[in-house]
Amino acid sequence: MSNILIIFAYKLILMINEKYTTDKILIFDIDDTIAITAAKIVVTDSKTGDKFELTPEEFNDYEKNPKHIVNFDQFRSLEIMKAGRLIDKYFNILKQNYNKGIAIGIITARDNQSMIYEWLRYHVGFHIDKKLIWAVNDPVHGLTGNIQQRKQEAMKWFIEQGYTDITFFDDDKNNIKLIKQLGKELNLPIKTHLAKK
Ligand SMILES: [Mg+2]
To answer: Which of 17, 53, 150, 165: disulfide with 40, CB 3.0–4.6 Å?
Structure first.
């Protein structure tokens, strides 16, 4: 085999065998935890036709009105995602641990696992195993229930994979509360951080 082929084969093996820890993991939400983007949720009142926009932070406390049509299209835009800014504090924690080979997971309310994977890999520069990226509203995961319940389900999956040292970062206190509760139920203390901008 020529040298070039050997190098190519070696690189291929490295790509497949991305090494990361299987006991310790840091799991991050995206919006308002590691990144702030201009993406907004557009809410339309089906009766009056009135429209208004909510930031992800405002959406955390929004209670759905049956007359409201909620549109998340802006969260599917890789361009809006790329134009956002990273939140240094939590992003640096992610980066330092990633560089040490600690497993990194994502649990976001977004609905596009592939877009998050690509954004992390080609825009931010981290190659995170796709199966560790949970965009809980993406039909690929087959989750049901509200956002908090879906986030709990995603966390259960991580626990089932055998992770025993889990730290969870999210800017929504309701998510933090439910993830903590889940840890208690399953007898596995989960460390949590309420991300603040
Ligand atoms: Mg968030």
So the answer is: 53
Q: How remote is the CA of residue 34 from the centroid of ligand 1, in Å?
A: 8
The answer to whether the predicted template modeling score (pTM) of the entire model surpasses 0.70 is yes
- Cα of 54 vs centre of ligand 1, distance in Å, is 13
Give the residue among 133, 90, 93, 100 at the shortest CA–CA distance from 114: 133
Domain ranges of the chain: 20-37+78-194, 41-74
Q: CA 170 to CA 165: how far, in whole Å? A: 17
d(CA 71, CA 122): 27
Q: Which residues have CB atoms below 5 A from the ion given as ligand 1?
A: 29, 31-32, 171
pLDDT tens per residue across span 110-152: 999 999 999 999 999 999 999 999 999 999 999 999 988 999 9
Using one digit for the tens of pLDDT, what is the confidence trace for 144-160? 999 889 999 999 999 99
